[in-house]
Amino acid sequence: MNQPFIVRFAPSPTGFLHLGSARTALFNWLAARSSGGRFLLRVEDTDKVRSEQRFLDEILEDLRWLGLDWDGEPLYQSRRFDLYREKAESLVSSGQAYREGEAILFRVVPGRKIAYDDLIHGRIEVETENIKDQVLIKSDGSPAYNFCCVVDDTELGITHILRGDDHISNTPKQILFYEAFGVTPPRFGHMPLILGPDGSKLSKRHGGVSVAEYKAEGFLPEALANYLIFLGWTPPDGREILELGEAARLFSIDRMNDVQAKFDLVKLKWMNGEYIMSKETPTLVPLLRDQLRRDGFDFETEEEGRWAAIADLYKIRIKTLREFGSMVDFFFRDDFPVDEDGRKKHPEPPERKALLADLAARIEALPEFSAETLEAMYRAMADEKNIKASELIHPTRMAVSGRTKGAGLFEIMAVLGRETVLRRLKRNAS
Fold first, then answer.
1. Beta bridge mates, 99
2. pLDDT, tens digit, 9 for 90 and up, residues 337-358
3. Out of 204, 385, 388, 405, which one is annotated catalytic?
4. Could you give phi then psi for residue 259, rounded to 5 degrees?
5. Would you tell me how many other CB atoms lie within 10 Å of the CB of residue 351?
6. How far apart are CA 225 and CA 19, in angstroms?
7. Is 204 a catalytic residue?
């Protein structure tokens, strides 16, 4: 990109930030930052009935959470009604618009072809016969969407507009307004929409549709941003894991895709797991603890070393932060749930209680309580009794964690501590 891109993202505070809108914001941010341009915010709050401050606050917070910053203060359309009317009246004065009651309409001259080179789709042409006269100011005094967009984008000096394919029909109408004001239109690029895995419009049945939902589910902002960017753009080196700053360094619009992208929750979870796994433990622990609090877990221990040890054991096993709580509750409480399927699959013969009692006695006598000494003791006991080590490991895992699988048993026992392990073994041996 030779020219600095001056772009904008225009959220409407009538609901939460949708994944498609978040992707639009990300691409505009990338275009600005990769070219040394500016990324601006314009709040489309002309619908005074449905627009709410709480939605705007959440949208701005979600943008920051994703790692986006913007230049200058947001522009609010609700504060500019007088300007829109003034601009519309100037078109009436020049004969390009007319009044119809309290409304003002733009006169579309037939017999013309409006053509522009879309940055993603290439040449697009529309005949003016297919465009009816356009409302500039509605009868209630509020501005029409296409008109106030042009007024604002002209004032902001927007050079490029990147938005979804659902706006393609708006572009020729907006070009007419730019021409009426004697202004060169920005360059337009329309991104194919995000679809569900079945090819239908992305909806709740495909997973969450708002950024807030994915935040609550324990997705990391880096992972969600990475995934959304890849639903429409391919880096030149083909990498799949690419943080935002690096994406800005590599970004160019000519590598954006002109085909619809399908949202794949499995792929997103895989990517999120990769980001979780690569995080340094001191950085990950606060995120895990925040998630646990949000999910209602009441784990009281403040031992940082214990938290770090548990995070190290499980960060390679979780795809979202939310999965962590149900996997590790047994570290913090004795009344943990027991895997009933595991209990049924592995019924406890009478001799198992004797084995657990024997294990407890040997663990009590161990001079050193560590994952290494525990494993050596278990292997030696299995050899001594001429049984498989799994015949000791499985009942121990059920006794100390209530689960049939998880992190390495001996590492779990080391973190639990000798006293807790003995208490749980003896409880199951009685």
1. 104
2. 888 877 766 556 677 889 999 9
3. 204
4. -120, 155
5. 9
6. 10
7. yes
